[in-house]
Every structure is written in structure tokens, then in C-alpha cells.
Design a protein that fits this description.
256 residues, globular, alpha/beta, single chain
Length: 256
């Protein structure tokens, strides 16, 4: 999976300079220097690689959280461990399922702003299952099924068109066949904290998303009173529109 996602980044960012050390660039005065990126279900942390490379080159200290995807508590713990290693203000960013994770973990005092990218944004007492029932199923959500161990996958035949329609077909198909499952207990666990009530919040809406409907994303953003940016991308917009996503994170680093 790691090599597949790295190859995706290579295809989409061909010709870009390799990320420079964080000390090579100077950030705007007062900006949060640290960025912690939390990935979603079915993929790993390298889905953030294109965004991370852009931010690192600009001088940010970027950390990619490796979610175990075994439970909400486990993913929140992994995120909190990453936050504990940060020195100073930190922008916490989540994609897809990662939005649930940052909602719970984002109450850390180091977190200066939250950024949701095509992400779920529950309120206190809500779970991913609760949110899924609140609107009509999308092509992607309707294709999520458990195996005999209770691990959730997206039907590999549906994955390319539903999740990654704007990635090269061979990469989308490879990702479909090498998914990292999300345990059903994570799907059912409610959050008991909603950090977005107390933190500056930003949302990147993917207008061609077939996993989380754009209308649902707009609803989440409105509920959170988030500053929103729209990109004409699929659920994989964090890869395809890495420059736009990175720009939103840069703006969030200046939030007060």
C-alpha cells in the first residue's frame, strides 16, 4: 500500500522538487509551525505525501499519523501521541474518517486550528454510523461491506469510480485491491468531544466526491461555521488537489 500511494504522488507531482528540510524556509510571523495529518480509512498515511511535501518545503514541521484503524480510541491515541511530540502551536488535519479522529483528539491545547478535507465532522454523541444514516447513501458508502471478521472494505469493483475517479486508472485499481480495512467498532463509536466547537475550523469540500456527498460536506462545514474552500475533485482530492489543500492548511496556520 505504501509503495502504491507513493507512486500516486510521483505520477501527480512529476517534476516537483523533493521536499527541502523544514529549516530552509521562513514561515509568516505568528504561524503555527507544526502540522499533523490524519489519514482516512482504506488507505495509509502516505495518502498525505503530496500535501506533506509541499508544506515541508515551505518550512512546516509535518507529521503523518499512522492510524491502526482498529478502533476510534486507537486512532485517537495514535494522533495524541503525535501531538505530544509537537513543540508549540499545531494545525490538526483529517481526511475522511480522519475527520472523526481529529474531532475527538483536537481538544489538545497545542491544536491551534482544525482542517477537514472531504471529512466527516460529528458532534458530541455522534458516530460514523449515525452520520451515515442521516442522509442517502452515496455510490461509495453503499459499497462498504464487512468481511467475516467485521472489518469494513469498499467493494474493489466500485472503489476506482467512487473513491478515486480522478487518479490514473491503474493506480485506483491497485488501491482498490490493497485496501486497509476499518474495524466495524470504529464505525459505531461515538465521539464524546467535538473540538471544532472551540477551535478555528476550515473545510475543503470536494465537489465530485462519491463517498461523502458534497451536500453533506457543506452541511458539516456550515454546522462548524468553518471557513470553506471548494475543489473540483473526488474523495482523493488530498492527492489530486494537493496544492489547494496545502494552501488551506497554510491559512489555518495563521488562525487565531
Amino acid at each position: 500500500m505504501r509503495n502504491l500511494l507513493l507512486s500516486t504522488a510521483a505520477v501527480l507531482m512529476a517534476g516537483a522538487a523533493f521536499a527541502a528540510p523544514a529549516q530552509s524556509a521562513e514561515l509568516p510571523k505568528g504561524a503555527a509551525r507544526n502540522v499533523v495529518l490524519v489519514h482516512g480509512a482504506f488507505v495509509d498515511q502516505t495518502s498525505w505525501k503530496p500535501v506533506a511535501d509541499i508544506l515541508t518545503k515551505k518550512g512546516y514541521n509535518v507529521t503523518l499519523v499512522e492510524n491502526p484503524l482498529t478502533s476510534l480510541a486507537a486512532d485517537v491515541d495514535a494522533t495524541k501521541q503525535a501531538l505530544a511530540k509537537q513543540n508549540g502551536k499545531t494545525v490538526l488535519v483529517g481526511h475522511s474518517w480522519g475527520g472523526v479522529v481529529i474531532t475527538q483528539a483536537g481538544d489538545d491545547p497545542k491544536v491551534s486550528a482544525l482542517v477537514y478535507v472531504s471529512a466527516f465532522a460529528p458532534d458530541v454523541g455522534q458516530s460514523l454510523a449515525t452520520l451515515a444514516k442521516s442522509g442517502p447513501a452515496t455510490e461509495g458508502s453503499a459499497a462498504i461491506h464487512p468481511d467475516d471478521k467485521g472489518n469494513l472494505y469498499i467493494d474493489p469493483k466500485v472503489f476506482p469510480s467512487a473513491v478515486a475517479a480522478d487518479l490514473p486508472p491503474q493506480i485506483a485499481e491497485s488501491l482498490a485491491n490493497h485496501q486497509l480495512p476499518l474495524n466495524h467498532t470504529a464505525f459505531e463509536a461515538p465521539v464524546d468531544t467535538a473540538a471544532w466547537h472551540d477551535k478555528p475550523t476550515f473545510y475543503v469540500i470536494s465537489t465530485k466526491d462519491k463517498v461523502i456527498a458534497p451536500e453533506a460536506q457543506k452541511f458539516f462545514a456550515a454546522e462548524m461555521k468553518a471557513r470553506t474552500t471548494e475543489v473540483a475533485g473526488s474523495h482523493a482530492s488530498l492527492v489530486v488537489h494537493a496544492k489547494e489543500v496545502a494552501a488551506v492548511i497554510e491559512r489555518a496556520s495563521l488562525a487565531k
